[in-house]
Specification:
The chain has 300 residues and is α/β, with parallel strands linked by helices. The chain contains 14 helices and six strands. It has two domains: 230 residues, P-loop containing nucleotide triphosphate hydrolases (Rossmann fold, 3-Layer(aba) Sandwich), CATH 3.40.50.300; 48 residues. It binds one RNA strand of 83 nucleotides through helix 3, helix 4, helix 8, helix 12 and helix 13.
RNA sequence: GCGCAGGUGACAGAGCGGUCAAUUGUAUCAGACUGUAAAUCUGACGCCUAUCGGCUACGGAGGUUCGAAUCCUCCCCUGCGCA
């Protein structure tokens, strides 16, 4: 085994599992810098609702890809991958270890495993024109444009269908799925918690976030206190805290309903995250900070 | 205790003579994932069976009917109104 081969560490797991703390701990041990892999923490001003790590919690460890875009602008996996790759190279050039930490599987797949994203930018006009089409209609359109992709795509998913049509109209067809993985040795660590404990952590964390002013944070986003107002639609699309708190602010839910529904959604989300990570057989699962030392040593 | 409204699968809540193991939502379980990914989407969900199919079910007990979750009788229970 090559001694000096650059290595990266990837810490994954469902929301509220304690990834961020663990990543900081690892960073301290291996002289690392952290790259967040979270599709919501990239936005400025979305802190409490996303559970973004605080300066204090960072404990001196540099963190990247947090607060890189304003919430009224859009972001994408593709941009994430480009930014992340650049930063990883810089960290390695500095002789340090990149630690990717987050719960957005798709982003990690692009950044680390190298899922190649077709170079077709979102076409707002096209998307708008398909807004009112039924799923069946979209499916038919795709079938005509790109039979091959049509055969494998989820026929019921309008969002995917639109994207596939978008790619096909711009470059003829959807290219085959391919990967350009990072050329570094990768250590995958997953943080797992048993279902009841995770639920409990989610519950406690939600109440604490509300107490710290999460509702105000979201109200400010919509009121434009950060520069430009973020539309209700956009907040709804951010999901979870942003979706349910904004529905409460709009008077669509009572505070109690908001909390109950939101908590359920967070739990469901954590299950979806688990489903995603489960298929990556390289991940070594641990349920607390103990034993992390062994994993780091045995794989170095 | 008289009046009215009800009792349906884990819960909510449709169905009101056959096409009902029973619409739908929630919960639960499993899954997908090519520039929105905390988004978006799929499947299973009474019991037995690989499948065909079989069995038990709509508060309880009877009854009418070729056939009842659906109609009738009595009983039990719940909510609201009047006492």
């Amino acid at each position: 085994m090559l001694e000096k081969e650059p290595k990266i560490v990837v810490v994954v797991g469902p929301t509220a599992s304690g990834k961020s703390d663990l990543a900081v701990l690892i960073a301290k041990k291996v002289n690392g810098e952290i790259l967040s892999a979270d599709s919501r923490q990239v936005y400025c001003g979305m802190n409490l609702g996303t559970g973004k790590i605080t300066k204090k919690e960072m404990n001196g460890v540099p963190h990247h890809i947090l607060d890189v875009v304003n919430p009224w602008n859009s972001f994408s996996v593709s941009r994430y991958k480009k930014m992340g790759r650049k930063i990883i190279n810089e960290i390695i050039a500095r002789g340090k270890t990149p630690i990717v930490c987050g719960g957005t599987g798709h982003y990690i797949e692009a950044l680390v495993e190298g899922l190649v994203i077709p170079e077709v930018k979102p076409d707002k006009k096209l998307r708008k024109s398909f807004e009112n089409k039924t799923t069946e209609e979209l499916s038919k359109i795709l079938k005509k444009l790109d039979k091959k992709r049509w055969e494998t795509i989820d026929q019921h998913n309008p969002r995917r269908l639109v994207r596939a049509i978008e790619i096909a109209t711009h470059i003829g067809s959807v290219p085959q799925k391919q990967y350009d993985p990072l050329p570094y040795k990768t250590l995958w660590i997953g943080v797992s918690k048993d279902a009841d404990e995770l639920k409990n952590r989610i519950h406690i964390r939600l109440l604490s976030r509300i107490k710290k002013g999460m509702i105000k944070e979201i109200e400010n986003l919509h009121n434009g206190k950060l520069g430009k107002p973020v539309s209700w639609k956009k907040l709804d699309d951010f999901g979870l805290e942003y979706r349910y708190v904004s529905r409460y602010l709009r008077g669509l839910l009572t505070k109690e309903e908001m909390i109950i529904q939101l908590e359920k959604e967070i739990i469901n989300f954590s299950k979806r995250q688990n489903t995603w990570f489960k298929r990556n057989k390289s991940i070594q699962w641990i349920n607390n900070k103990n034993g992390i030392e062994e994993i780091l040593n045995s794989n170095s």
